[in-house]
Design a protein that fits this description.
Elements (H helix, E strand, L loop, with lengths): L10 E5 L6 E5 L5 E4 L6 H18 L4 E3 L7 E5 L3 H7 L13 E6 L2 E6 L4 H13 L18 E4 L3 E5 L4 E4 L7 H10 L29 H4 L20 H4 L23 H22 L4 E2 L13 H10 L4 H13 L5 E6 H5 L12 E6 L14 H13 L3 E3 L20 H14 L3 E4 L13 H13 L5 H13 L3 H20 L16 H15 L4 H10 L1 H11 L6 H21 L7 H12 L18 E4 L8 E3 L7 E6 L4 E8 L4 E9 L8 E11 L4 E5 L4 E3 L10 H5 L1 E10 L3 E11 L2
Parallel strand pairs: 3-4, 3-5, 5-7, 10-15, 11-12, 12-13, 13-14, 14-15
Antiparallel strand pairs: 1-9, 2-8, 6-7, 6-9, 16-25, 17-18, 18-25, 19-20, 19-22, 21-24, 22-23, 24-25
Helix pairs in contact: 1-3, 8-9, 12-13, 13-14, 14-15, 15-16, 16-18, 18-19
């Protein structure tokens, strides 16, 4: 894999010869034939299919296919068959090509499309169709944009194209039609995350190697109780290692072995079992898929890996929180040099910081995942810590990919993510990655509305694909290209909308503003901008119809969501909110009916019901109203609990009710994983204000853990504090909170309607 070196840069050079341009078709007729040679492989078949179908759609002419060009007047050679090499003679450029570099070459009246590597030829086809003839593949769900040509003319000359990143990918797991998604990605030159399931349909991944996966710890060693942990492999004979070997699992800060973090990687016996199981997993992967990466990494939770003395010593040895894990991983890689390993450099509190080590294994690929950075800034300015860590990994090995997060996420129940402006931020980071020498883009583009084709997420996808090929392209020109092809006459409004959001982001950052990964209510979503942008869309809607109108409605889904979220309680905007609700409902229905993704219509109905419920929501008690919202968390009891009752006095009209003896009522906290009680208190009759909800404080602050609840009475009352837990936020893992509970006491019952947590200073 030495071709993944810094010399693998974008190269597009054109040499013009003294000859006439080629007229491939005119007035619905052609005398060109597509020549395939004897290559009958899946990629060649797809190349023929793609070239033939697009040329015919452009011109109306029929392009015949032949194994040989002998006796044909004009020929389009696909690949370097023996015949193609003979015709090219000394002008054959194959010997000078770099990996994946492709060629569009004219000699006489013949056209040659070829390249180096298994995808050289088909990528030459896509370069011809897109960059010479103007075809566009803009959406997974839309037919290609194919311009009509009365005469199809190709300028004479030779064009060589290589791509900036050897490996290129956007995630696409949320598309239900996997073949449809793969075709779209493939046309835009993606060569990772395509899968091997499409061989029979002509889709083949760039690498003859399967994977990598992620968060495989729980797959290899079953026994974790961590919520969201991946399922163990089915072939395991031992289903719960923690039950028989708790010493193999993480030790917490109190010296207790727990099953909701990681493993104790300094434990030699655990390592033996881990390596044995990992090798079996790898054997099965290769048996099923051919050659495969063996991906070894950690659970998705950012607590310290293990606090036992030996693991802590390894943190010091490697000068990284991931020290104990790296010690095991490096030993494993060196012992099995013929296996290709991969691991995530993930979480600043885990493995993001590179270890101090000599002779780093050459069979280990690092997938750098800067999830803790500021999503409002770039790696060269606001996220310099991430930039330094990435460069640190590149000093250890050239085999580094970046698992990048283009958009923020949110813990809320929004119907679709709020609109955000960050095209220039993404473009700048892609350029920085390329300049640094990153080999692969592994972008987690599954937020921002992409599963609903909402906001400007499809434009984001297309722009990122172009930048993966050439980071030096002008991002604004790319956006204009997409918008004009996709939104028609509404393109200027779309571009103005994106520009204004981006400018507000930049203004925000200049004043020290920050977006975290879970930010969802962006600072510019004020009534002023919501009304301005809504009018822009209304005006644009008058200029389009049909598919372009539907696309415009999808682009404004996040804006509609923001208007409903922000202005529903304002009487002056009652009519506007109703219009937005109706439009969002129709657009959501259109998308979930016509575009096969993992999102369902029920998500919208649930969210709208929550918006309606806000009218019944009681305001925060006076004592909390001056506290910044960022310092507060609010949580309601589970409405489906056995003790749930309707109560008009309650915060949301629902409470949990349990009996008490009229003398004393106990409340407290409990962690199910460590089986330990946390702070609590007793409430005596003398402290109670009967018949109305009052606030009761648990004096001692605590850290929210992934299995923490608040209980009351004989445990019939509870608050699921674990629902507030944020596993991938290092600051959250250290933050202590003070809990205030809203309770109403009657003669024989206690009612709970909410808990309010305040950051402890």
């Amino acid at each position: 894999m030495k071709f993944f070196s810094s010399i693998f840069l974008l190269l597009i050079t054109t040499f013009f010869a003294w000859a006439e341009d080629l007229s491939l078709a005119k007035d619905g007729k052609t005398d060109y034939v597509i020549v395939t040679g004897k290559d009958n492989g899946a990629i060649q078949k797809l190349a023929v299919q793609e070239l033939k179908s697009h040329l015919e759609a452009m011109t109306g002419a029929v392009f015949h296919v032949s194994e040989t060009g002998a006796g044909k007047k004009h020929r389009i050679y696909l690949g370097l068959s023996e015949e193609a090499r003979n015709v090219l003679g000394k002008e054959n450029l194959a010997a000078s090509l770099r990996e994946q570099e492709n060629v569009i070459q004219v000699k006489g009246k013949d056209l040659f499309l070829y390249g180096k590597g298994k995808h050289g030829t088909i990528f030459a086809v896509y370069e011809l169709l897109e960059n010479k003839f103007g075809c566009r593949w803009l959406s997974v769900f839309e037919e290609p944009y194919i311009p009509s040509k009365k005469e199809l003319v190709l300028k004479d000359g030779t064009t060589r194209t290589a791509y900036a990143f050897p490996l290129r990918s956007l995630m696409n797991y949320f598309y239900k039609d996997r073949y449809q998604a793969a075709v779209y990605n493939y046309r835009n030159r993606q060569n990772l995350l395509l899968g091997l399931d499409y061989l029979d349909k002509g889709i083949v991944p760039e690498l003859e190697i399967y994977g990598p996966a992620c968060h495989t710890l729980s797959v290899i060693i079953p026994g974790f109780t961590l919520r969201g942990a991946n399922r163990p492999a089915e072939w395991h004979k031992i289903k719960d290692y923690f039950a028989i070997h708790p010493e193999w699992f993480s030790m917490d800060e109190k010296g207790k072995r727990i099953s909701n973090r990681q493993l104790c990687f300094s434990n030699k016996e655990m390592r033996k079992e881990y390596i044995k199981n990992a090798l079996e997993m790898h054997r099965r992967l290769e048996q099923k898929h051919g050659k495969a990466y063996l991906t070894l990494d950690l659970n998705d939770i950012a607590y310290r890996i293990c606090c036992c003395p030996d693991c802590m010593k390894m943190e010091q040895k490697y000068q990284s929180r991931g020290g104990a894990f790296f010690d095991m991983l490096i030993e494993f890689c060196r012992k099995y040099p013929k296996i290709e390993f991969a691991t995530l450099a993930y979480q600043r509190g885990l493995t993001q910081t590179p270890p101090v080590v000599k002779d780093f294994p050459q069979n280990l690929t690092i997938i750098f995942c800067p999830i803790n950075g500021l999503y409002s800034g770039t790696m060269d300015k606001e996220n310099k810590n991430d930039m330094n860590d990435m460069l640190g990994w590149l000093k250890l090995t050239p085999k580094v990919w970046v698992w990048y997060y283009p958009n923020t996420y949110g813990y809320g129940t929004l119907a679709i993510q709020m609109p955000m402006g960050n095209f220039e931020r993404i473009a700048q980071d892609i350029r920085l990655m390329h300049k640094a020498g990153i080999q692969g883009t592994y972008f987690e583009h599954d937020s921002g509305g992409i599963a609903l084709s909402g906001n400007l997420s499809e434009m984001q996808s297309w722009v990122m694909y172009k930048l993966f090929q050439n980071p030096d392209l002008d991002v604004k020109m790319l956006m204009k290209d997409f918008a004009e092809h996709y939104y028609g006459k509404a393109a200027p409004a779309i571009l103005k909308y994106a520009e204004e959001m981006e400018q507000e982001r930049k203004n925000f950052v200049a004043k020290g503003g920050k977006w975290q990964y879970n930010t969802q209510n962006y600072h510019y979503l004020t009534a002023k901008y919501l009304l301005r942008w809504n009018k822009m869309f209304d005006d644009a809607a008058k200029m389009v119809s049909g598919k372009e109108a539907a696309r415009l409605n999808m682009a404004r889904m996040g804006l509609d969501c923001a208007i409903i979220d922000k202005l529903s309680s304002e009487p002056d905007y009652k009519d506007l909110v109703k219009i937005c609700r109706d439009r969002l409902t129709k657009t959501y229905q259109y998308v979930t009916t016509n575009r096969r993704t993992t999102t369902s219509f029920s998500r919208l109905t649930k969210w709208l019901a929550e918006i309606d419920a806000r009218g019944k929501k009681k305001p925060l008690p006076e004592m909390f109203r001056k506290i910044p919202q960022s310092d507060l968390l609010e949580i309601a009891p589970l409405a489906k609990a056995k003790t749930a009752v309707k109560d008009p006095d309650a915060h949301m009209g629902v409470a949990q009710a349990v009996e008490w003896d009229g003398k004393k009522f106990n409340i407290g906290t409990y962690d199910y994983t460590s089986k330990s009680y946390g702070p609590g208190r007793a409430i005596y009759a003398s402290q109670v204000k009967m018949g109305e909800y009052s606030i009761y404080k648990i004096q001692k602050p605590f850290i929210i853990s992934p299995d923490l609840i608040m209980w009351g009475g004989n445990w019939g009352m509870s608050l699921p504090l674990r629902a507030l837990f944020k596993s991938d936020n290092p600051e959250f893992l250290k933050q202590k909170w003070t809990l205030y509970v809203s309770l109403k006491f009657t003669k024989d019952k206690v009612y709970l309607d909410r808990g309010i947590l305040v950051k402890a200073k």
